[in-house]
């Protein structure tokens, strides 16, 4: 059996200008990065403004096992299947982060015969977007520290600097650092730290900005510190906006690649869903909607994280109205939620399946709260038994949702034909109902009310406990005029609760909010729960151990 990277390296890719031509994109609007990837020009947006949007399909999932559920794989396979049905579908996915690639989770280019290619490029440096984001973020930090060094005209309190440096790598040693050591010539000593790039506010801004002007304005609105009088200081006061925009102007352009079956795919932006808002860029999604009859996009981790933020943050700012939700699950994951240990998931266990399927039920119900139709996609494994499959099919029928057994990993688009047909039929049947879509909460309610609404309606918690630190932070955020922003909750992906050990559908629990941070440039308030860290660490046996490069420049051991 071939590995993912071997399948990808054997792919017969088309030149990127051919992929663009299939979408009606002129070569003058294409900015190639080699033969098989390209960025798209700013002028393309105005040329397409007159076109009607296609249908927006969100692919999300149940709470994942540590091994993941194949959500990106299903997204890619669905696009390939749409192509086989003669549908004009365009993928819009996130860029992988180097941290997980070299850490434990791995990349985000799909798997088996449902991948986006060139896989190695996408999972490593790609077109340099991550590096541009990192550079822009750290330029702001450098200019902030230089401001302190050069007399601190704004009276910034070094103890109340809110903006951290970032690096696109899992490096726990950088979570808490001290800068400015070594004497007067080396800066003002202060405590600092690093976030991983995909959790940075600059990443969120890039993904939510609609154009260069909006990008620049959002950068200027970043809260960087407070002064000695307790007043907020924003990035525009540091005079960093122009230089940061210059670093990001090319990164703002979506990247065009292809699937193994030569379907077009935009890969752009990559915020994590457990510590950030978990969606690809608004610009890529909107471009895909203009160029295709269907735009297939995904949101990170389970629907309690990725989908909630997609609907309540991205759709709110982008004016997007989804037509259908594809909810990915595996029978293994359902048994895991029923209490089976990871090493025993390949064995038939009807008792655990019956117990764990409540997790699927909850996610279906949650998606219906946004007034959207749901199609369940079971990412099938060879170990799934006929009895287990029938149980899931009967369960979904009782809930009134279509279910499809997907084999896109092993068969590519052919393995997703049934899913594609059911998604298209669901959209046809519900045509026009996407106008009923609306976010879960109104922007006018308080920050605490927003958190409590999500905790009650999506996590099914009995309530929310706000620590004194969280209470103080939220009061301060509302006090400087940011009460109306949506919230972005940082929470474990493994449970509907804030405790990763509580599987299935936890009961009799409360969510504990330990802190809150204003991301005024991005346009949301980050709410911290549990032990979520914004700079992950490497595991004992990181994936980097297995990755190499031969003397001919060929990448080995990536997946």
Shape: globular
End-to-end CA span: 13 Å
Mean pLDDT, to the nearest integer, reads 94
How many H/I helices?
19
Return residue spans where pLDDT drops below 50 for at least 5 consecutive residues: none
Overall strand count: 25
Radius of gyration: 23 Å
* Major sheet description: 12 strands, mixed
Name the structural class: alpha/beta
Q: Could you state the oligomeric state of the chains shown?
A: single chain
Helix content: 25-40%
- Beta-strand content: 15-25%
Concise synopsis of the structure shown:
The protein is of the alpha/beta class and 559 residues long. Helix content is 35%, strand content 19%.
Give an account of the 3D structure.
- It contains 19 helices and 25 strands.
- Helix 7 crosses helix 8 (201-208), helix 7 (129-149) packs antiparallel against helix 10 and helix 13 crosses helix 14 (350-368).
- By secondary structure, the chain is an alpha/beta fold.
- The radius of gyration is 23 Å and the shape is globular.
- The model has no long low-confidence stretch (mean pLDDT 94).
- Helices cover 35% and strands 19% of the residues.
- The two termini are 13 Å apart.
């Amino acid at each position: 059996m071939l590995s993912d990277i071997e399948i990808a390296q054997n792919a017969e890719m088309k030149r990127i200008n051919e992929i663009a031509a299939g979408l009606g994109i002129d070569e003058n609007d294409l900015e190639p990065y080699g033969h098989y990837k390209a960025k798209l020009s700013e002028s393309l947006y105005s040329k397409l403004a007159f076109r009607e949007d296609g249908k927006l399909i969100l692919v999300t999932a149940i709470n994942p096992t540590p091994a993941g559920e194949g959500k990106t794989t299903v997204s890619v396979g669905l696009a390939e299947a749409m192509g086989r049905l003669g549908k004009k579908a365009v993928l819009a996915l996130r860029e992988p982060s180097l941290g997980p690639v070299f850490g434990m989770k791995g990349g985000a280019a799909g798997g088996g015969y449902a991948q986006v290619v060139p896989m190695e490029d996408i999972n490593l440096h790609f077109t340099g977007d991550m590096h541009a984001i990192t550079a822009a973020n750290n330029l702001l930090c450098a200019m902030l520290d230089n401001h302190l060094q050069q007399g601190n005209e704004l009276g910034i309190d070094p103890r109340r600097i809110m903006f951290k440096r970032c690096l696109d790598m899992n490096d726990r040693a950088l979570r808490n650092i001290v800068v400015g050591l070594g004497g007067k010539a080396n800066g003002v000593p202060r405590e600092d730290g690093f976030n991983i790039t995909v959790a940075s506010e600059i990443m969120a801004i890039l993904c939510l900005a609609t154009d260069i002007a909006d990008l620049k304005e959002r950068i200027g609105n970043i809260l960087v510190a407070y002064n000695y009088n307790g007043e907020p200081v924003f990035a525009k006061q540091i005079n960093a906006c122009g230089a940061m925009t210059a670093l990001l102007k090319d990164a703002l352009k979506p990247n065009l690649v292809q699937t193994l079956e030569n379907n077009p795919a935009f890969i752009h932006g990559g915020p994590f869903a457990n510590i950030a808002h978990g969606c690809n860029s608004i610009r890529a999604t909107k471009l895909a909607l203009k160029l295709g009859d269907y735009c297939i996009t995904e949101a990170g981790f389970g629907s309690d994280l990725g989908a909630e933020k997609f609907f309540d943050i991205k759709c709110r700012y982008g004016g997007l109205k989804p037509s259908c939700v594809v909810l990915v699950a595996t029978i293994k994951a359902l048994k895991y939620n029923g209490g089976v240990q990871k090493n025993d998931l390949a064995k038939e266990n009807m008792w655990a399946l019956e117990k764990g399927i409540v997790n699927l039920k909850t996610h279906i119900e949650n998606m219906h709260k946004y007034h959207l139709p749901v199609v369940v996609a079971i990412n099938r494994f060879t170990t799934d038994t006929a009895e287990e499959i029938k149980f899931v099919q009967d369960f979904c029928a009782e809930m009134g949702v279509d279910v499809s057994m997907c084999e896109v990993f092993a068969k590519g688009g052919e393995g997703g034909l049934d899913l594609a047909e059911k998604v298209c039929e669901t959209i046809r049947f519900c045509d026009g109902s996407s106008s009923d879509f609306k976010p879960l909460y109104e922007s006018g309610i308080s920050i605490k009310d927003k958190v409590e609404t999500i905790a009650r309606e999506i996590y099914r918690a009995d309530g929310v406990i706000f620590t004194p630190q969280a209470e103080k932070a939220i009061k301060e955020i509302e006090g400087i005029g940011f009460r109306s922003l949506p919230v972005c909750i940082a929470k474990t992906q493994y449970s509907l609760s804030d405790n990763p050990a509580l599987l299935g559908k936890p009961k009799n629990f409360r969510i504990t909010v330990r802190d809150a941070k204003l991301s005024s440039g991005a346009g949301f308030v980050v709410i911290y729960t549990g032990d979520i860290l914004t700079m992950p660490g490497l595991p004992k046996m990181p994936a980097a151990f297995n990755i190499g490069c031969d003397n001919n420049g060929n990448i080995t051991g990536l997946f």
